[in-house]
């Protein structure tokens, strides 16, 4: 007569399967504090216990019908701890006598085929795999679980939120704190293209707005070139509403103006001016004598 799996083991297996099942659908361990989870665990536990009790009754009945030797063998086997028995069963080797019983009646080249039972660990893995597969496909089909697109969107949102929190925690860049950095030129160029090039041209040569690459400036509220550009971009021109207050209006942030001003500084100080012959606007204002940054 076969030995049965202890109830405790069955209950443990049920808890593990339920945990996997809940996790697939809830996608966090929050369910561990939910009464529904523990309710299902308790109900499943009680059912497993009842099943075990019925099994005991059946086993007792069968036991009575065994011969004395069978009874002794059964009791000896029962003394072996469960996990040891499981281990033995998983890696059992047939004796030669047993092999005769399971020999299939064909062979080739002296190799005979045996009708072996599948190892228990293999069968267990197979059942687990099948159950997991069904659960996984169900979770994949009816929930957001394991969907690359949903996961991507979720992570994207989280990153955007994290960036927002980060930039809020950063002190805003003002004309006092802004500094020229050559690292900002490339990004500044892109920002200049989107916000300023319509009037000042991509190369800063000017059109509706003045040429930003030459020495002549209409507005010179600040002593250094970098700060002057920051000032103009933040406050706009007091004389010409076409040059609006991009910073004050909230169209570009202080951090962005810091980059734009670095680009304007770069094209004014480090590149040759865009002359009229090259399509630049004629000089306007007076010659500026900028202090060093
Ligand atoms: C709608 C057209 C327009 C846009 C867009 C524009 N500007 Fe201007 N900008 C002007 C005009 C016009 C002036 C001349 C103002 C004046 O006469 O006082 C000017 C002047 C300036 C000056 C001072 C130049 C001087 O000689 O005094 C700077 C610096 C400047 N703009 C930077 C920028 C930056 C940086 C941006 C992008 C964020 C920008 N502008 C976007 C039209 C524009």
UniProtKB/TrEMBL annotation:
It comes from the Bacteria. Pfam families: Cytochrome_CBB3, FixP_N. Residues 183-268 form the Cytochrome c domain. Keywords: Heme, Iron, Membrane, Metal-binding, Transmembrane, Transmembrane helix. InterPro entries: CcoP_N, CcoP_N_sf, Cyt_c-like_dom, Cyt_c-like_dom_sf, Cytochrome_c_Oxidase_Subunit. GO terms for molecular function: electron transfer activity; heme binding; metal ion binding. PROSITE patterns: CYTC. SUPFAM superfamilies: Cytochrome c. The chain crosses the membrane at residues 7-25, 37-58, 121-142. PANTHER family: CBB3-TYPE CYTOCHROME C OXIDASE SUBUNIT FIXP. This is Cbb3-type cytochrome c oxidase N-terminal domain-containing protein. It comes from Chryseobacterium endophyticum.
